[in-house]
Design brief:
This protein is of the alpha+beta class. It contains two helices and eleven strands, in the order H-E-H-E-E-E-E-E-E-E-E-E-E. The chain has a single domain, classed as Sandwich (Immunoglobulin-like), CATH 2.60.40. Keywords: Signal.
């Protein structure tokens, strides 16, 4: 009986170990929060229209995160790479497609064409080492997606 209890206990510990997420599988502190992929009004490539298309990231941790080298990209491969930028704990940053003046809450890609497809796409967030931090996909319905 004692051997059986030890064996059963070992099996429970082994099962618990297999179910516990490893650090690589744990959720990223910085995540994609919302994507506004279909800017309001006509898609006329004006800077205002381009900036109506954006991705918002959130820092879900209790500490500030340096985003230098993080990359935000779409399925096609259009990529925005963060320069030296600190996202404070619990705060968001919105990455707009068009041009503008970077602030603590808004970053600008500087593109002259749209990135996010209205008919469906995926936003990928990658760490500086290239590993996946987060992603968010959508279909053809609606204008935006909460991830």
């Amino acid at each position: 009986m004692r051997t059986r209890l030890i064996t059963t206990g070992a099996a429970v510990c082994a099962a618990a170990t297999m179910l516990a997420p490893t650090p690589a599988e744990a959720a990223s502190a910085v995540q994609i929060y919302r994507v506004y992929y279909d800017s309001p009004g006509k898609d006329n490539r004006s800077n205002a229209s381009l900036n109506g298309e954006w991705v918002q990231l959130v820092n879900k941790s209790r500490t500030a995160r340096q985003l230098k080298g993080y990359r935000l990209r779409d399925k096609t491969g259009y990529t925005y790479t963060f320069g030296s930028f600190v996202l404070k704990a619990g705060k968001t940053v919105t990455v707009h497609t068009g041009k503008g003046r970077n602030t603590a809450a808004h970053r600008y890609w500087g593109r002259r064409a749209y990135v996010w497809n209205n008919t469906g796409d995926t936003a990928y967030l990658r760490y500086p080492n290239g590993k996946a931090a987060d992603s968010c996909s959508w279909g053809s319905k609606g204008d935006w997606k909460r991830c």
